[in-house]
Design goal:
Layout (H helix, E strand, L loop, with lengths): L1 H19 L6 E14 L12 E11 L4 E15 L6 H6 L2 E16 L13 E14 L2 E4 L2 E4 L22 E14 L4 E12 L14 H8 L1 H7 L25 E12 L5 E4 L2 E4 L3
Antiparallel strand pairs: 1-2, 1-10, 2-3, 3-4, 4-5, 5-8, 6-7, 8-9, 9-10, 11-12
Helix pairs in contact: 3-4
């Protein structure tokens, strides 16, 4: 039910965006630029900007008036984390790690705090702005095993579908997120704008890192998924209760969903006549 609701919301945003393309008197822009991505979740619960990775994005934007814009974009990033550099004692004992590529399609609205007129040398040529939107993304957590990156989702490392946890299903490697953030635009000339932005993404999955609930039964995992799956499931340097196995002990926190952040610097090109300016919520030719 929750997935259906999110899908309806995504299609609603998409329909609104493409219908807006039919409205007259609006400018359109294309932007591209490099960025940095990082992750916050079970393997890195609190430290922002730990293990950032280079990425990038590209987008197409419609400006409706002085303050409101809507953009559709693509984003690539990479995230990783390791308990070995964690700040809590339980991380040292748990000793998990992961890395994953992120491929995202997003639809994001922008609100300019100050009247901003792209393509005009007169008037306001800079503004801070807020952004909020909706995105869908793909991910694939992997872990290093004897020098080789092993995809984790298919290994069912938390005992998914085992006799002990028959209702614990294999997780999907795609999900939705809500991007929100703050940025700054500065007009360089009639055609070009420089934009910086920092956004966080609240995802609807707790498995960016392959960690969410409790340890599975290592004997069952070995029997069903193999020895590699069992070793990647429980990499703890000691058992939590002496010689007893870690089955049922906490491996992650299922009530706290995973997040990832993105910071970028982008160049934006305006396609329309540079003499077009705003009049109310529409556009008109600038008077000479």
């Amino acid at each position: 039910m929750r997935v259906n609701t999110m899908l309806k919301g995504c299609f609603g945003w998409a329909a609104y965006f493409f219908l807006s393309l039919l409205l007259p008197g609006q400018t359109h822009e294309f932007g591209i630029g490099p960025g940095l991505t990082y992750y916050v979740g079970d393997v890195n619960p609190t430290v922002h900007w730990q293990s950032p990775h280079p990425g990038g994005h590209a987008f197409y934007r419609r400006n409706f008036d002085w303050h409101w814009s809507l953009r559709a974009g693509l984003l690539y990033g990479r995230i990783s984390a390791a308990d070995s550099v964690g700040v809590y004692d339980f991380q040292t004992t748990r000793n998990l790690h992961f890395e994953s590529d992120i491929y995202e399609l997003n639809l994001i609205g922008e609100f300019n705090f100050l009247p901003f007129k792209p393509g005009r040398n007169s008037g306001r040529d800079w503004t801070p702005f807020l952004s909020l939107g909706f995105s869908g993304f793909m991910f694939s957590p992997q872990a290093n095993y004897n020098g080789e990156l092993i995809p984790l989702s298919a290994l069912e490392t938390e005992g998914q579908t085992t006799p002990t946890f028959p209702d614990r299903e294999e997780y999907a490697t795609w999900s939705f997120a809500i991007p929100f953030g703050l940025g700054f635009k500065f007009m360089l000339n009639d055609r070009w704008t420089l934009m910086t932005e920092y956004q966080m993404r609240m995802t609807f999955t707790d498995y960016l890192d392959d960690v969410s609930t409790t340890y599975g039964d290592l004997g069952e995992i070995t029997l069903i998924s193999g020895q590699v799956a069992a070793e990647l499931s429980d990499q703890s340097i000691s058992d939590y209760n002496g010689s007893m196995p870690n089955t049922f002990y906490q491996r992650g926190t299922p009530n706290d969903l995973d997040w990832y952040g993105f910071f970028h610097v982008s160049l934006v090109y305006k396609f329309n006549d540079p003499n077009i300016c705003y009049s109310g919520v529409g556009w008109r030719k600038a008077r000479r």
